[in-house]
Amino acid sequence: MDGPVRRLLAGVLLACIAANLVAAEVRVETTSNPNHGGKSSLWHLMHVESLDDLNCQLAGCVVDLTENHGCDHRFWSEALGLPRDMYVYLPPGYDQNRAYPLFVWVHGFGGDEKQFTRQVVRALDQAIVSGALPPIIAAAPDVSLPCWWRPWYQGSWCINGQHGSWEDYIIQDVLGFLTKLFKIRPEPEAHIIAGWSMGGFVAYNLGFKYPQHFRHLVGIYPNLNIRYSDRDGHWSKDFDPHNLGWIQDLRWGHCIGYYPKPYPFPVPAGIVYWPAWGHGDQAFPRMEQENPYELLDRLNIRDGQFNLYIAYGRKDEYNVDAQVDSFLHKAKERGIDVWVRFNHIGHHSSPYVNECMPDVFVELGKSLRRLLPDLRPQAAADCVPQSHNEANADSTGVQQVSAAHNHRSACPDAVLILPSRGDR
């Protein structure tokens, strides 16, 4: 065994150890049946946030449809034949007789529905409290693959594939369950699908394919060109429109990025792609079929058909910034308008997801009110007790984004916001 192979195997081993002990939220099933949805691990038991503690910090509330907090409240998926976890956020002053817009959050590879409680819900709640965003119902389903042991949560990519009908799970089961349990506005202009990393891929993939369900597509550090490489097959090169190729190597040990903490270590294609996509000749045709970059042409996506939002950073450990650059270049060629939030020092990690979400929610609020004029700007503030409102109204986490081009966010100096061209 030569030196590079040994180093790669050592890196994989370290990845597994670090994922178990530090960062990747190991899931070990509570039964030998891999179709059981139960979770049990040291990390899981230590780091499942109390919903009571979380809801005490919110004006709205998170509803538990999981088995993360001592009781099994999961909902049944007909498409998968499994019980699945999901969190649902209800806005302040929730009225069961009122219909609300819907926000669906899809977590990234390596995580599950708990990412929503760490990365999204506080900024979402604060945006509603401030009046930047109208009251909405939000849902965060678990889209990780069930498996009786794993080094981290392996993602399904929400495709109908060898491990189940995950696309149907979202479109039929999740949406169907939510519309039965809650009053959701039916028009696609009231529906948002958003996600981080793999979840951003899902948002654009499903959004493009189901325009009858979603108008607003949000990608946070999103995998928008999963076949990206240069002409020599190098995935890690910066985007150059004159040197664009397609990834040709999906060997198990082929490195596609570096997990950023606690120490960078290589992440092989076998962990990220093989479980959902397969490998070799099996994988590439399906990746081509589902790739958001290629769906722009295949589905003849037009300007104004969707409201598109992307937030990403230049220091991405998986070179997702090059994927996004290539997607934006293709969108520009097609004359498609995209709202972009770019961080020159942004990494592919939770802190950079957290810091961009307030700006994203401000822009979503503007778009929702343009398309749905009946949404009153101060609807949330009217529902929140005055003392809570006063305590949170000046939070620097929520801000209005200027309509001028090249406006810089008031938060990090490295952030550049390129707004869309205007009202649609």
Quick summary:
With 424 residues, the protein is an alpha/beta fold. The protein has helices spanning 3-23, 42-47, 51-56, 114-119, 121-130, 166-181, 198-209, 269-272, 274-277, 283-290, 292-298, 320-333, 350-371, 379-383, 386-392, and strands at 61-65, 75-77, 82-84, 86-90, 102-106, 137-141, 160-161, 164-165, 191-196, 216-220, 228-230, 244-246, 255-259, 265-268, 307-313, 339-343, 407-408, 415-418.
Going across the biggest sheet, name each strand in turn.
1-4-6-5-9-10-15-16-18-17
**What percent of residues are in strands?**
15-25%
3D shape: globular
Largest sheet: 10 strands, mixed
CATH fold assignment: Rossmann fold
CATH architecture: 3-Layer(aba) Sandwich
Describe the protein:
By secondary structure, the chain is an alpha/beta fold. The chain has a single domain, classed as Alpha/Beta hydrolase fold, catalytic domain (Rossmann fold, 3-Layer(aba) Sandwich). The protein is built from 15 helices and 18 strands. Strands 1-4-6-5-9-10-15-16-18-17 form a 10-stranded mixed sheet, with helices on both faces. A two-stranded antiparallel sheet has the order 2-3. Strands 7-8 form a two-stranded antiparallel ribbon. The longest helix is centred in the last third of the chain and has 22 residues, at 350-371. The protein is globular, with a radius of gyration of 21 Å.
